[in-house]
Amino acid sequence: MFIPTLRDDPADAVAPSHRLLIRGGFIRQLMAGSYSMLPLGMRVATKVSDIIREEMNAIGGQEFLAPVIHPAELWKTTGRWDDVEGIMVKFEDRRGIDLVLALTHEEVFAHLASEISSYKELPQLWYHLQTKFRDEARPKSGLLRVREFIMKDSYSLDRDRDGLDRQFEAHRGAYNRIFTRLGLDSIAVEASSGNMGGSDSVEFVVRSETGEDRVARCGRCGYSANLERAVSLVEEIEDTPWGGEPQPFATPGIRTIAGLAEVGEFAAAERQIKTLAYMVGDEFTLVVLRGDHDLEVQKLADSVGEAVRTATEEEIVAKLGAHPGSLGAVGVLYPVVADHALKGRTNLVTGANEDDVHIRGVDVDRDLPVTKWLDLRTVNDGERCGSCGEGALSVTNVIEVGHIFKLGTKYSQALGANVLDETGRPTPIVMGSYGIGVGRAMAAVVEVSHDDRGIIWPVSVAPFTVVITLLRPDNPGVAEAGDRLYRDLVEVGLDVLLDDRKERPGVKFADSELIGIPYRLTVGPRGLEAGEVELTARDGWLRENLPILQVTERLVGLMS
Predict the structure, then answer these.
(1) How many beta carbons lie within 10 A of that of residue 505, not counting itself?
(2) DSSP assignment of 506-533, as one string?
(3) pLDDT tens across 134-155, in order?
(4) What is residue 75's three-state secondary structure?
């Protein structure tokens, strides 16, 4: 078997799953964000996919296989042609027709759903496992952030919101079972729907120091949410009074919140107004928060319902006449969106839209032309829970392993996926979308289940259940015993790898531990003299000598 293990870590690999999947001979990088699955990797990926299929079929799923290349017209019709600019790969065929590489399949399945004509044909649950391509700006961490990957995406089709709610909850249950079978202790958290649209979404995550997502959790009431969605309670600040109008003052060379805070106590970070310039759709907009708070950009995008981007320095100077670090919203004629924590605040400091000048004595309600009050700030560790109001939130790094969305009628309305209701009137199909990345799930298992010697696969997805390690394969008795054990274990349905290489025992042991096979049978001349072999568990819970005639029964018992 082709298992090209490596002794040393790849130079560019930091995440444990990246290091170990390459060293163990599971994957090989072709280019940034693109990996080949080698035989061991394919065995794991197939088992992950089979678990997903079983649980999807159990809730009524029907498997499809939709194309990877889509006509641009579908994406233009739903409005996502421009929404995902930069990450979607667009190209033309030889006839000059615009095409895209699939980064997801909502449009295609909504198009297929247009063949359903009556409410009597609903509900439906369709899914497939197919390649996706996303042009990630910074692919890294092996299979955790890639450009090309296999994803299970499923789509529920219902006549009304109640049906969507039922299928959404059915998926929640299926996902919990999938991740449990994969050996992952997943957490379901509230999340942003991003450019998928729709109403609610739930993200399934696992704790990991290498995770790039962060979630806030309340130990008291169980509230859990991605930071893109999380809310907390901010302690109120009692402002000292300020008499009169706002007053400009010189701040030469000061461009940061920290720099301004050093000017004096009146300019402490929590007494400053942080002003950021964004393009909301095509409109220049000022976003204001408390000086010691950070903007959660996805909250802004979700709240305004449009694409947002940071305004360029050239755009800022042209609109306000000052550079970033000297900006403020006092008396401006542009839209101003403000975080709730600023409501009612007085005697604050902000930029004057003039370089090297700030303004003190700002009364938010009086001086800032706020057009929208929104929850915009990033939640911090230790803040009070916004759900129960009593517990403290803990912020944890996590890996996203699944995401489920209530899409509603966004795609069905755009693509004409309507059914006739009981009265004969056309009504758009109510959709849900549900995704799990196969490679990401593999990587997540490794992230949470490894040690300094290698991977520790759970039996459910291990490339092999048992490895038979022959200490002296050139010894006829050892070779014969190994072959007999191999045949017996395969006959009872176990996945078995026979290591009869002419290598030192230490090399074989190191390889089996690196690869992470759950159980190892060690067959050597000395043990065979006593009629025994050694059985060890990769995770260290078991090490025993047992009669060779009892091996099959013992291993079958361990699997039950």
Answers:
(1) 13
(2) HHHHHHHHHHT-SEEEEE-HHHHHTTEE
(3) 999 889 999 999 999 999 999 9
(4) helix
Question: Is there a contact between 113 and 429 (Cβ–Cβ < 8 Å)?
Answer: yes
Q: Is pLDDT at 199 greater than 90 in this prediction?
A: no
187 contacts 401 by C-beta, under 8 angstroms: no
**Nearest CA to 136 among 144, 127, 128, 145?**
145
Residue 281, classified by CB atoms within 10 Å of its CB into exposed (0-12), middle (13-18) or buried (19+), is exposed
Q: Of how many residues is the chain composed?
A: 560
Nearest to 183 by CA among 446, 545, 380: 446
Asked if residues 188 and 174 have their Cβ atoms less than 8 Å apart, the reply is no
Please spell the DSSP secondary structure of 262-275, one letter per residue.
Answer: TT-GGG-GGGBEEE
Inform me whether the pLDDT recorded for 198 exceeds 70: no
3-state secondary structure of 347: coil
122's CB contacts (< 8 A; 6+ apart) are 116, 157, 158, 159, 163, 419, 429
* Nearest alpha-carbon partner for 2 in 32, 42, 29: 42
Q: Would you call 487 exposed, middle or buried from its count of C-beta atoms within 10 A (0-12, 13-18, 19+)?
A: exposed
**CA 172 vs CA 30, 60, 165, 175, 405: distances in Å:** 35, 14, 10, 5, 10
Residue with tokens 């955790």: 144
CA distance 299 to 188: 19
pLDDT at 447 over 70: yes
Check residue 142 and report its DSSP letter.
G
Q: Is the peptide bond before 426 cis (omega within 30 degrees of 0)?
A: no
Evaluate if residue 85 carries a pLDDT over 90: no
| Other CB atoms within 10 A of residue 352 CB | 21
Supply the pLDDT for residue 82. Answer: 84
Q: Which amino acid is at 285?
A: T
Q: Which helix (H) or strand (E) holds 308?
A: strand 308-310
3-state SS record for 45-77: HHHHHHHHHHHHHHCCCEECCCCCEEEHHHHHH
Would the pLDDT of 182 be above 90? yes
| Residue 154 structure tokens | 């499923």
Q: Nearest CA to 189 among 220, 215, 154?
A: 215
**Beta bridge partners of residue 308, listed in sequence order:** 280
What is the per-residue DSSP string for 422-488? TTS-EEEPEEEEEEEEHHHHHHHHHHHSEETTEE---TTT-S-SEEEEES-TTSHHHHHHHHHHHHH
CA distance 108 to 101: 12
Rounded to whole angstroms, how far apart are CA atoms 492 and 485? 11
Q: CA-CA distances (angstroms) from residue 229 to 52, 191, 206?
A: 27, 6, 17
